[in-house]
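We emphasize that the prediction below concerns an isolated chain of 302 residues; any contacts that depend on oligomerization or on bound cofactors are therefore not represented. The input was used exactly as deposited, without trimming of termini.
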Amino acid sequence: MEKFLQVIRKTVTSSEISIKFDGEETRRKVKRPGNDQEGDLLPLYGGRDPVSGQILVVVPPKKKLEHNGITVELVGRIEVFGEKSQQNNFISVVKELSGPGILVADQTYKFDFSTIKKDFETYYGINVSLKYFIIAKVIRKVKLNLIEERELFVRNVQPEPDNDHSVGMSVGVKGELHIDFEYARSKYHLNDVIIGKVYFHDCKMRIKNMEIAILKKETCFQDASATNESDALMQFEVMDGTPVKDEIIPIRMYLSNLDLTPTYPTINSSFQVRYYLSVDIYNEEGKRFFKQQEITLWRKEL
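Result of the prediction step, given as a token string:
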């Protein structure tokens, strides 16, 4: 802590406020989705992990800081983008660290939000985000307030789902095509492997190629309407050309290299995220035949 303050003192000519999380040096960090900057790493917390730390208010030598109070706030926020952008704070807990006063030297204040549950995971999607952050504020009498924000990343381990079972689906065109797909399970953890088979019972159609994809479908709810976006996270060609009758093609898809979240049911009446296995078959005339099967994804470990 003293080393941290020494670095600030060397560069500060006016009052500043900073946030430091407890155990920050050893806590695992993750990259903010969609940001390629190496230094943009966020501390990782489980939903029941305590969030605590220190607020550092630095006052330059021979100066003083008059204020009307110092506060810290834990915020959980859902932001929906688009034509009608909106924000919704589902968590907003403010704690007063100090009443009005005058600081003539650096001051450290401790904060602790150990009792606040973080039930929803951090999420950065196409049209919506869910974020957690700490806001520290020095309320000043005349000048602008001193405000600092620091984001934290939340993930939640989930219990293994019950009632897992094999799933199957068929693609057929009467008299021309009959294909069955079979997958060993319908529920997978984020580092799992999807294993299945494709059975060609009858194929008189001239097939150009067949592709299998994992689709992520994000649905946002605003003003009694829903906006849907789909993203193909993995797509590969299973075969090209027309198979022979009764041919069987094995399928193996590794999830660990994909940017996946668990399946989210409706979160705070704002959005949901679901995943599907999609099979696309194209004939030589360019016509597409497809079928989709929903799967459930869950987080086994952080």
